[in-house]
Amino acid sequence: MIKIVKQQIDTAAVLEFVQSEACGAAVLFVGSTRRMTDGRETTKLNYECYEEMAIAKMQELIEKLKSRWPVEHVSIVHRVGTVALGEASIAIAVSSAHRQASFAAAEWLIHEIKKHVPIWKQEFWADGATEWIHPDGATPTSTPATFKAES
Amino acid sequence: MMVQIVLFAGAREIVGASSLQLSLDDPSTVADLKERLREQYPSMHLLLDRSVVSVEQQYVSDDKPLYHGAEVGLIPPVSGG
Q: Quick one: DSSP state of residue B43?
């Protein structure tokens, strides 16, 4: 399941989606809005996305994940619009027969989403400043074989 | 040729619109498009250097040829998740 939503993420549903009798393990990762970053206070985040492309890229990541680990099910839900402190901006769930694959795959997946998926966050700082976050090292590779196999 | 560029985040704020139409010579590449954007929006220079372009929702390199009616995305460094 891949969804982009505007309302609060139902993280229980994200986890439930991947659970099955074939799986002895399921891992849920939730990313949420944190108050402090390098000594600066956030009041809220705002997310926007290139929706069709974001969903397509997340689908590609799921396919690559399944080719690398024996994972049964994956779900990704990303929220756009305002995400208040403590609220989830993303939830990822992965399931597998045994836990090693779910732990490894879930960590890889959030790492890759943060590198390749066309979604952007805007910080609203407590001092009144706002800025779109465009970090170094977060430019998706532009070569045709975007997702090169990693060792 | 005419291409439509969709804009997001910091790039959208600089241009002041979520999309724009650009008339380019035929043939033109992504590099030519970026150069045109640099000319029209000088304050986007640094962000452009760090951005990648998509054509029909696939990331492409700067030497990719463009075509009339292409949907081009200007993708500044991403920050989702």
A: G
pLDDT of residue A138: 78
Cα–Cα distances in Å, from A95 out to A31, A33, A128?
18, 25, 42
Contact A142 B52 (CB under 8 A): yes
Distance from CA of A31 to the nearest CA of B (A): 7
* Amino acid B65: pLDDT: 96
pLDDT in tens, A73-93: 999 999 999 999 999 999 999
ipTM: 0.94
Closest CA to A1 of A55, A64, A65: A55
| Residue B56 at interface with chain A, using a CB cutoff of 8 Å | no
* Residue A32 confidence (pLDDT) above 70: yes
Q: Do A138 and B78 make contact, defined as CB atoms within 8 angstroms?
A: yes
Q: Do A90 and B61 touch (CB under 8 A)?
A: no
B31 interface with A at CB cutoff 8 Å: no
Each as own residue / partner, the long-range contacts of residues B36-39 (CB below 8 Å, 24 or more positions apart, any chain) are B37/B5, B37/B74
Distances (CA, A) of B52 to A35, A63, A140, A151: 30, 23, 7, 25
The pTM is what? 0.93
Cross-chain Cβ contact A119/B78 below 8 Å? yes
Q: At B14, which helix (H) or strand (E)?
A: helix B9-15
